[in-house]
Write a structure and sequence with these properties.
Elements: E1 5-13, H1 16-26, E2 30-34, E3 38-42, E4 50-54, E5 59-66, H2 70-83, E6 88-89, H3 92-98, E7 102-107, E8 113-118, E9 144-149, H4 152-161, E10 165-172, E11 178-184, E12 192-196, E13 201-208, H5 212-224, E14 229-236, E15 242-247, E16 253-258, E17 273-274, E18 278-280
Length: 290
């Protein structure tokens, strides 16, 4: 039993047009549906991967995890019930909104709203809003998410029981030598990272593209539009991602990068601990310049 991948994300925003300009003009996402109350964004052949809802306050709304099949979802539900988790079956309207065949809702120990689903629908081929080589998604899923948590041990147990395995660790010098834990459920180096801290906070979503030129182009566009760059262009030590971070209109950060390392052979993979976040760059609050 294991989650297969991060499948989709929902977020709240005060200004949907701001999100549309940010996601499409800068990063190349395709608008597949928009109205006064929500914006749906396509990044590959799935109907959509992101839904932005108009709301009074910005922030994350839900994180969709692919169980792989109806039987896979049923197995996970039984497991979560044995854990004593409070589950709610998604309504037909919610499944239709997410374009999946079925889903179950549960909160992780930090209170993040998860939706475990199966049967994510495919649509027409992805057509980027600006010229680009496309997103690296496929079976590895949307990307990765990073949470700060006050209950690290409970979070590690929860995601571990859902089949995520440890990839490696990084000592976060900017946060009092806190140890960040990176976990994977498919060849992507990590689909979840957990950092102990004083708050339960969603830090960032990572989107990976197929080429360095797309990262550089987006970096130029971000700076030209004076959008807040929260970490400069750099290369991470553990997953080798060449990326930068910016603040989304929903308040959390978006990492946009390429050339991420994959775990193709579990038996040959060595779990190690890194003493630096990046080989170079990524200057920002999480990695101050020395």
């Amino acid at each position: 039993m294991s989650l297969r991948a991060l499948g989709y994300l929902g977020a709240n925003a005060v200004d949907l047009k701001e999100w549309k300009d940010y996601a499409c003009d800068v990063f190349g996402a395709q608008v597949i549906d928009e109205g006064p109350d929500q914006l749906k964004l396509r990044l590959d052949d799935k109907h959509h991967r992101m839904t932005i809802y108009k709301a009074d306050a910005p922030g994350p709304r839900y994180f969709g995890w692919d169980a792989g099949s109806r039987a896979g979802l049923a197995n996970i539900v039984e497991h979560l019930k044995r854990r004593g988790c409070d589950l709610a079956e998604g309504t037909a309207q919610e499944s239709d909104d997410r374009q999946v065949m079925g889903l179950v809702k549960v909160n992780d120990p930090s209170g993040n709203a998860l939706e475990i689903f199966y049967g994510q629908r495919s649509g027409y081929p992805f057509q980027p809003a600006r010229p680009m080589a496309g997103f690296r998604i496929g079976d590895m899923g949307l990307g990765h998410v990073v949470f700060m948590t006050t209950v690290l041990d409970e979070m590690l147990e929860f995601y571990g029981e859902l089949g995520l395995r440890m990839s490696d660790y990084i000592i976060m010098r900017a946060f009092g030598d806190a140890k960040a834990h990176f976990l994977h459920c498919n060849p992507r180096h990590h689909s979840v990272a957990l950092v102990p801290g004083p708050y339960n906070v969603f830090h960032h979503l990572m989107l990976e593209v197929n080429g360095l030129d797309d990262v550089g182009t987006a970096y130029d566009l971000i700076n030209a539009r004076k959008i807040n760059v929260t970490q400069t262009l750099g290369k991470h030590t553990n997953d080798h991602m060449i990326s930068f971070y910016s603040q989304t209109p929903s308040g959390f950060e978006l990492e946009y990068g390429c050339n991420g390392r994959t775990i193709d052979d579990e038996d040959a993979w060595n779990i190690v601990e890194y003493d630096a976040v990046s080989y170079w760059g990524h200057i920002g609050p999480a990695n101050p310049a020395h």
